[in-house]
Amino acid sequence: MLAAELYELHREAGKDEQYLERWPGDQELFGVLTFAQEHAHRLTGETYRRAAVLRMQLAEWLRLAADPFQLSAIDDARAGGTSWKELALRLRYLDRLGEPNPGSAMNLRKRLYVTVKGRPGDRRQPQVAHLIDRRAMEARLAEAQFIAAGEARYADLDAVARALLNHYEVGEIPADPDDDGFWWEQLAEAIDDRRTASERANLLVYVRGVVRETRAYAKRSGQPPAATEQGRRTLEEAAELVDLDPDG
Q: Is 73 helix (H, G, I), strand (E, B) or coil?
């Protein structure tokens, strides 16, 4: 393990030093990285070089380990109605005029998606390959459950998805003019392209996305989520099918 290797380098180089008594536990990886960098000056020559390389590897491992959490946070923020512009502002992705750059936030999400959904062969470090292997196994189990649930309610989801699009296209379900319309676009593109069980199950994701987006905009704008009673009932039916709180 990287932390243990770092400890051994410091222990061999500082046998008479008391500072190692403050060494964090090997499971406290961020603390180990901070400690090893703070005391890097205590090492010399080849030991200094080897420790620097280990710190680099540990920092990379920590960064990759955090990627799934940031990806999930971005997707949850978007589903909750946060705009790309606000995310860019929070991340300090600004253009030369100091204005938030939504494209940079979107590109971050794309990079994170590729990283998190990568394969073990995409990474050279054994620690990272092991992490992705574990993610893949957990993802396979979750996907099997997701597909089974999707198949059970596909007919109802398909009907409500088409009804949602009809209400949206005639203007009965308002959308934020400043948003990119991602979920509506995905739903429209996928509605007639459902060949496999996995693709059919994904319809749930798109329906949930448009319902959450619609509710979030209604709260921000202070207007009802649908302009007609029929549209409101369709949104409620969709929310129930995708296991969202009927009261939003």
A: helix
Paired tokens of 236: 């409620």
**Residue-wise over 55-70: b if at least 16 C-beta within 10 A, else e?**
bebbeebeebeebbeb
Tens of pLDDT, residues 33-59: 888 888 888 777 888 888 888 888 888
Sign of CA dihedral 133, 139, 144, 145: positive
Rounded Cα distance, 175 and 73, in Å: 23
Distant-in-sequence, close-in-space partners of 98: CB < 8 Å, separation ≥ 6: none
pLDDT for residue 126: 47
Q: Is 106 helix (H, G, I), strand (E, B) or coil?
A: helix
Instruction: Determine the Cα–Cα distance for residues 248 and 239; give it in Å rounded to an integer.
Output: 9
CA separation for the pair 125, 130 (Å, rounded): 9
- Please answer whether residues 187 and 210 qualify as being in contact, where contact means their C-beta atoms are separated by less than 8 angstroms: yes
CB within 8 Å of 211: residues ≥ 6 apart? 164, 235, 238, 239, 242, 244
Q: Write the burial class of residue 25 (CB in 10 Å: 0-12 exposed, 13-18 middle, 19+ buried).
A: exposed
* Dist. CA 100–CA 96, nearest whole Å: 10
| Dihedrals phi, psi of 212, to nearest 5 degrees | -65, -40
Token pair belonging to 58: 């540990």
Question: pLDDT tens, 128-185?
Answer: 555 555 666 666 677 777 677 666 777 888 899 999 999 999 989 988 887 778 888 8
Tokens of 189: 């593109």
Contact residues for 96 (Cβ-Cβ < 8 A; gap 6+): none
